[in-house]
UniProtKB/TrEMBL annotation:
Cleavable signal peptide: 1-18
Gene it is expressed from: ND2
EC assignment: 7.1.1.2
Organism field: Florisuga mellivora
Keywords in alphabetical order: Electron transport, Membrane, Mitochondrion, Mitochondrion inner membrane, NAD, Respiratory chain, Signal, Translocase, Transmembrane, Transmembrane helix, Transport, Ubiquinone
Membrane spanning stretches: 56-76, 96-115, 152-171, 178-196, 202-219, 239-257, 277-298, 319-343
Cited function: Core subunit of the mitochondrial membrane respiratory chain NADH dehydrogenase (Complex I) which catalyzes electron transfer from NADH through the respiratory chain, using ubiquinone as an electron acceptor. Essential for the catalytic activity and assembly of complex I.
Main subcellular localisation: mitochondrion
Coiled-coil blocks: none
Membrane topology value: Multi-pass membrane protein
Subcellular localization(s) per the UniProt record: Mitochondrion inner membrane
Catalytic activity: a ubiquinone + NADH + 5 H(+)(in) = a ubiquinol + NAD(+) + 4 H(+)(out)
One example of a Gene Ontology biological process annotation: mitochondrial electron transport, NADH to ubiquinone
GO molecular function per UniProt: NADH dehydrogenase (ubiquinone) activity
Name of this protein: NADH-ubiquinone oxidoreductase chain 2
Length: 346
């Protein structure tokens, strides 16, 4: 891709995100979401492979439908209340339509089927953007309207997302699809606590972004698109694979790593809200995700292929691991002792 075009699309992503997260008017928020959608589509389809073009078309259709629903929701609310302010979402039909639109944009169950397919057809760097940066504007809109949303609908979506994200990730061999189902599962954790403590949702999203960016950068360095290549990537970068294992275990939520912090606080808050049953169910469902994270960690550091493979074993890698991966891995693994400071800052 032309460097100037790439710069334009990257700046458009930053602009669209900034417009959405800083606006109070529905039309401005919608404009930012549309700029984001139009900027990411060329990055998805830049390889011109049929699978990438298919992913770009799927992404465009889903995002266009979700944006239409969002605009329709805001128009109904303005018709009944005379308000275009995002925080004044008082009409129940508008609230239901907005929840549906944002669920489509994020890939929450039952609107999740597009997300693994789009990630699988995208390059690793674009898949990283889709899993992290592109989720920030919709989550911001959810945070701004959290007081108006339906708690039963959000809790149902959250628990089913945690269940399907863990269950459907079990039999995957493609790393991008595994990370897509991981994203769906983590969105369930963020959504279930949204109404009761929006700051916890934001903290969980920030930590999820740090860990996911680390994993995508590590996979991009070793060019590991599936488990069979991940199994022999330790010959290229053994230190990076050890760091990848730590980040995967942190993403799974194992103590004493940083990924345990949001799950611990979310379970505590749900118990305080007398939602013990929901906390128990979502905790048990997280074991499904733990299984495939452990499988990824096992493949990346311990397992050797049991038979000859078609992949060329390399003892040296052309582009050495970047310093950013080392910093992000440290944050992913070692932030738990700093949890009082994190909680005080949000």
């Amino acid at each position: 891709m032309n460097p100037h075009a790439k710069l334009t699309f990257s700046l458009s992503l930053v602009l669209g995100t900034a417009i959405t997260i800083s606006s109070n008017h529905w039309v401005m928020a919608w404009t930012g979401l549309e700029i984001n959608t139009l900027a990411i589509i060329p990055l998805i389809s830049k390889s011109h492979h049929p699978r990438a073009v298919e992913a770009a078309i799927k992404y465009f259709l889903v995002q266009a439908a979700a944006s239409t629903l969002l605009l329709f929701s805001s128009m109904i609310n303005a018709w009944h209340t005379g308000q275009w302010d995002i925080t004044q979402l008082n009409h129940p039909t508008s609230s239901m339509l907005l929840t549906t639109a944002i669920a489509m944009k994020l890939g929450l169950v039952p609107f999740h089927l597009w997300f693994p397919e789009v990630l699988q057809g995208s390059p690793l760097t674009t898949a990283m953007l889709l899993s992290t940066v592109m989720k920030f504007p919709p989550i911001t809109i959810l945070l701004l309207t959290s007081h108006s949303l339906n708690p039963t609908l959000l809790t149902t979506m959250a628990i089913t997302s945690a269940a399907l994200g863990g269950w459907m990730g079990l039999n995957q061999t493609q790393t991008r699809k595994i990370l897509a189902f991981s994203s769906i599962s983590h969105l369930g954790w963020m959504t279930i606590i949204l109404i009761y403590n929006p700051k916890l949702t934001l903290m969980a999203f920030y930590l999820y972004c740090i860990m996911t960016v680390t994993i995508f950068l590590a996979l991009n360095t070793t060019k590991s698109l599936k488990l069979s290549t991940l199994m022999i990537s330790w010959t290229k970068t053994p230190a990076l694979n050890a760091a990848l294992m730590m980040t995967l275990l942190s993403l799974a939520g194992l103590p004493p790593l940083a990924g345990f912090l949001p799950k611990w606080l979310i379970i505590q808050e749900l118990s305080n809200q007398e939602m013990t049953l929901s906390a128990t169910v979502i905790s048990i469902l997280s074991l499904l995700g733990l299984f495939f994270y452990l499988r990824l960690a096992y493949h990346s550091t311990i397992t050797l292929p049991p038979n000859p493979t078609n992949h060329m074993k390399q003892w040296h890698i052309n582009n050495p691991a970047n310093t950013l991966i080392a910093v992000l891995t440290s944050l992913s693994a070692l932030l738990l002792p700093l949890s009082p400071m994190i909680l005080a800052s949000i």
